[in-house]
Design brief:
409 residues, FAD/NAD(P)-binding domain, D-Amino Acid Oxidase, Chain A, domain 2, eight-stranded mixed β-sheet
């Protein structure tokens, strides 16, 4: 990579001030790279400010489990690693998968995936209904013969973390420009020369587009079109009844069809999984508030796992966007003219990976390869390769689903 040749030119322009862009800016700046981050609104305006930020590390493939574990290491040790107040709360986290006849083999796959996590240093274990009842006596577990439990996983204050990462990047020397929209990527035909912005042209040796569901709009001028769809996804915040005063675990509960986490004292953030809850939208024109029927839907879904939540009340909620890739795995790496990179397509599961993706992309740009993860499976061009099979699993332990949860595990 020919970066740093002109001392007056920013070496890397990062487009997008979410957890991925801010983390990348921080990692580049720490490595002595002159980096400018361009955010059209404010840092954490996109998915990173509307996320659930559940921090599961349970994946059925090694590259994503590695990114999740590396991300957890940063979030869980935030004051020492990044600086500032802690952002992670380790409530414990449970993952359920359908083990009915329609999904035969999932129980054994779960055991093997827990073993994969253990190999990566994650202290997960498989638990049965008895232990689940001990952990969460107020929940019903008759439909869960086996689940994965991560005692030191939990959730993150996503806005504090994303903004904190931007502050750390600036302290390390990165320029952070809010309110500056990138209108397109410029190139001399064979390699990038910079970006066109609402504040004028910024020359750059390399450009990384980490603009979530807006990524294709930024790439359009460079003649690159990636198969990224913007899907609208809602979450609601509920007041728990007083009998559920103590915080519960984080649940990625594909059996009950919910993901949820504690949200401030006495409150729970919940999202309802499933394709019927995910609408393709224009990322610049979508309804940012909950649909009128969503509060009742969310309460009923929560009550499937925790019956007393039928008496919860609705505080508020919002809709955010998933940047869906066709195989639900991210797109990380070079695209189009030399020097242009993308980090997008996180498909509703990118927050936890953000710090790790930032490090991996910084290493790719500076050293030619990431030190701790093989990025090749994430190559953005894979969908156009001859023989590419969208349905080919990334491991032999990928779960079968009897109904759509929104993304794979
Ligand atoms: C409701 C919901 C729940 C979720 N739950 C989880 C979860 O539990 N766990 C998990 O790991 N992930 C979860 N996710 C996914 C996760 O939040 C995202 O994958 C992650 O935040 C994406 O970060 P990002 O930096 O890639 O993109 P974003 O945070 O979307 O940042 C992209 C930024 O680019 C900016 N931008 C766009 N266009 C331009 C332009 N032209 N010029 C300059 N800037 C531009 C935007 O303003 C935005 O700030 C959830 C997402 C949603 C919506």
């Amino acid at each position: 990579m020919r970066i740093g040749a002109n001392a007056n030119v920013t070496e890397v322009a990062v487009v997008g001030g979410g957890i991925v862009g801010t983390s990348l800016a921080w990692h580049l700046a720490k490595r002595g790279v002159r980096v400018t981050l361009l955010e059209r609104a404010t840092v954490a305006f996109g998915g990173s400010g509307r996320t659930g930020a559940l921090l599961r590390r349970h994946y059925s493939n090694e590259p994503e489990a590695t990114l999740a574990q590396k991300g957890w290491e940063t979030f869980a040790h935030w004051p020492e690693v990044v600086g500032g107040a802690p952002v992670h709360t380790a409530t414990g986290l449970v993952v359920t998968v359908d083990t009915s006849a329609a999904c035969v083999g999932n129980a054994e796959k779960l055991r093997q995936n827990v073993a994969l996590q253990n190999r990566l240093g994650i202290p997960a274990r498989a638990v049965g209904p008895e232990e689940l009842r001990e952990l969460q006596p107020f929940a019903t577990w008759d439909d869960v013969p086996i689940a994965a439990y991560e005692a030191d996983s939990g959730y993150v204050d996503a806005v504090a973390a994303t903004r904190g990462m931007a502050v750390a990047a600036a302290a390390a020397g990165a320029k952070i420009r809010e309110g500056c929209a990138v209108l397109g990527v410029t190139s001399d035909g064979s390699r990038v020369t910079g970006v066109r912005t609402t504040d004028g042209v910024l020359a750059a040796d390399a450009v990384v587009v980490a603009a979530g569901p807006w990524t294709n709009r930024v790439l359009a001028g460079a003649g690159v079109a990636l198969p990224i769809a913007a899907l609208r996804v809602q979450v609601a915040v509920l007041h728990r009844p007083l009998e559920l005063e103590a915080p519960h675990l984080v649940y990625l509960d594909t059996v009950a069809g919910i993901f949820c986490r504690p949200w401030a004292p006495g409150r729970t953030l919940v999202g309802v999984g499933g394709g019927d809850q995910h609408d393709p939208v224009d990322p610049d024109a979508y309804a940012e508030q909950n649909d009128p029927g969503y509060p009742a839907l969310a309460i009923a879904a929560m009550a499937r796992r925790i019956p007393a939540m039928a008496r919860a009340s609705y505080l508020g909620g919002h809709a955010g966007l998933y940047d869906m890739s066709p195989d639900t795995h991210p797109m990380l790496g070079p695209v189009g003219p030399e020097g242009l990179h993308v980090a997008a397509g996180f498909s509703g599961a990118g927050f936890k990976k953000g710090p790790a993706v930032g490090q991996a992309m910084a290493e790719l740009i500076v050293a030619g390869r990431a030190s701790f993860v093989d990025l090749r499976p994430f190559r953005p061009g894979r969908f156009a390769e001859p023989g590419f099979d969208l349905d080919r699993p990334w491991s032999s332990t990928e779960y079968a689903f009897s109904r759509d949860f929104g993304h794979r595990l």
